[in-house]
């Protein structure tokens, strides 16, 4: 089982996205076959297993009542499986046979390699223009792709590096060794190297605030206030202050963008970000045309998911012959006009969002199910604070913060369907929860 998890992590650092979409299903099949169909799932992990099975049953139901092209369903099963199938597969593994520390260290090693490789790419491909990221006003790291190679994957690599940083920061605060601190700093630098000066400066201020709060938390009067919430409030204030002082033009741009977006909700404005148009048409126009879409959506692969984009013929630079162009009626009417072919004019104008896609394709029922899943993930990871192990318990603390960060990222892109990023997250979320469940079982049996 360990080898399968090592392979999963390794595959996530390759540019072969098609194989990354296939791997979770291969992983699940191999695990079931190796167990000879005798799967031992603890009573706590069984909730997650049941959830995935029920979700996929609903997934098929939603497509059936909104039947378009079977190709769209296959594409959706492939892209959504990046997270859900990986999660299911890992929850079926016998955690007592898993070398968690070894797998985590392997992830750390592969992630850290991305930093020098990515920096070399920035320097070599940009004619040394980004050698000093402190002089850049805006993001300078489109070429920072590491072993994912193409610049289209730089944002994926950035978020992967941020996951390492979030998981290692609490570990460093718990066990302040040179090794742990070095890993966290490298993860942070890799996260911010593709960004501008304001991102780097803001990142170090966040580290300072989090560290200071860890030291002073026992002296706080309001002991019932969760440290994570206070941290986010203080960090948010400081980040905005640093951004405003150092990059006022970017703040002004963002404020104007928000103002246009807000104004467009109640009236027509000169400029409306296409993402806002996508949200408005999905929440207002789509249910008006198809009332059942509010509950059940228009079917997986039929609206704004990455699967829908892949079959649209308007998204991939080179459309493989094995993927027929079969956009649904609703995708052609509401989403494709907002995405000119091969467009690349900013996140604000990309009509893509995980939450938008889940609601549009699976309705309120599907969105409610996914929200319940993430609440359960956050709650269970947060409960792992009883275990006294730096790599387990403290990495779980970091993964809670990262999960909250991820839920927010879902507003801006179809992050749930990027396999190179979401597979490692699913692996570590499931492994840490499985280890916590094992602890609960041993504690209840009096064997701990």
Folded structure, characterized:
The protein is globular and about 55 Å long. It has helices spanning 2-11, 17-34, 46-65, 70-91, 100-125, 154-174, 178-192, 197-216, 227-246, 248-266, 274-289, 293-296, 306-310, 329-335, 354-382, 390-409, 419-445. Helix 3 packs antiparallel against helix 4 (70-91), helix 9 (227-246) packs across helix 10 and helix 16 (390-409) crosses helix 17. It contains 17 helices and no strands. By secondary structure, the chain is mainly alpha-helical. Mean pLDDT is 79; it is low at 130-140, 196-200 and 221-225. 42% of the residues are buried.
Characteristics of this structure?
448 residues; single chain; globular; mainly alpha; 17 helices; 67% helix
Beginning-to-end CA distance, first to last residue: 25 Å
User: What integer value in Å does the Rg equal?
Assistant: 22 Å
Number of extended strands = 0
Shape: globular
Number of helices, where a helix is a run of at least 4 consecutive DSSP H or I residues: 17
Helix and strand content put the structural class at mainly alpha
Unreliable spans: 130-140, 196-200, 221-225
Output the helix-strand order.
HHHHHHHHHHHHHHHHH
Query: What does the main sheet amount to?
Result: none
Query: Which percent range fits the helix content?
Result: 55-70%
Strand content: under 5%
- Overall mean pLDDT stands at 79
């Amino acid at each position: 089982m360990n080898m399968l998890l090592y392979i999963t992590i390794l595959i996530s650092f390759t540019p072969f996205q098609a194989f990354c979409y296939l791997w979770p299903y291969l992983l699940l099949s191999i695990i079931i076959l190796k167990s000879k169909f005798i799967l031992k799932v603890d009573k706590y992990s069984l909730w997650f297993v049941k959830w995935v099975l029920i979700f996929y049953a609903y997934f098929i139901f939603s497509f059936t009542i909104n039947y378009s092209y079977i190709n769209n369903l296959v594409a959706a099963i492939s892209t959504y499986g990046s997270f859900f199938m990986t999660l299911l597969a890992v929850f079926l593994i016998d955690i007592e046979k898993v070398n968690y520390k070894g797998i985590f260290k392997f992830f750390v090693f592969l992630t850290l390699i991305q930093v020098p490789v990515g920096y070399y790419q920035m320097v070599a491909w940009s004619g040394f223009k980004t050698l000093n990221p402190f002089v850049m006003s805006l993001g300078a790291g489109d070429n920072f792709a590491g072993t994912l190679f193409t610049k289209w994957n730089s944002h994926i690599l950035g978020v992967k590096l941020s996951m390492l940083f979030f998981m290692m920061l609490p570990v460093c605060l718990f066990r302040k060794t040179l090794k742990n601190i070095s890993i966290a700093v490298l993860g942070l630098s890799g996260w911010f190297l593709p960004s501008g000066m304001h991102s780097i400066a803001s990142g170090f201020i966040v580290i300072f605030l989090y560290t200071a709060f860890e030291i002073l938390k026992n002296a706080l009067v309001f002991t019932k206030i969760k440290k994570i919430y206070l941290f986010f409030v203080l960090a948010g204030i400081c980040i905005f202050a640093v951004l405003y002082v150092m990059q006022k033009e970017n703040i002004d741009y963002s404020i104007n963008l928000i103002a246009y977006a807000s104004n467009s909700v109640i009236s027509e404005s000169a400029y409306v970000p296409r993402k806002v148009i996508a949200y408005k048409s999905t929440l207002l126009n789509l249910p008006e045309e198809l009332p059942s879409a509010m509950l059940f959506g228009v079917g997986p692969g039929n609206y704004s998911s990455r699967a829908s984009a892949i079959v649209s013929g308007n998204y991939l630079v080179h459309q493989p012959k094995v993927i027929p162009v079969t956009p649904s009626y609703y995708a052609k009417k509401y989403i494709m006009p907002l995405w000119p072919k091969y467009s690349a004019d900013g996140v604000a104008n990309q009509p893509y969002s995980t939450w938008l896609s889940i609601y549009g394709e699976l309705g309120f029922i599907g969105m409610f199910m996914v929200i319940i899943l993430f609440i359960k993930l956050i709650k269970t990871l947060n409960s792992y604070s009883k275990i006294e192990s730096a790599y387990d318990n403290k990495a779980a603390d970091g993964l809670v913060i990262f999960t909250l960060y991820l839920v927010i990222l879902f507003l801006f892109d179809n992050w749930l369907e990027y396999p190179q990023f979401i597979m490692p997250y699913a692996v570590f979320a499931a492994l840490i929860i499985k280890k916590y469940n094992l602890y609960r079982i041993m504690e209840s049996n009096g064997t701990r």
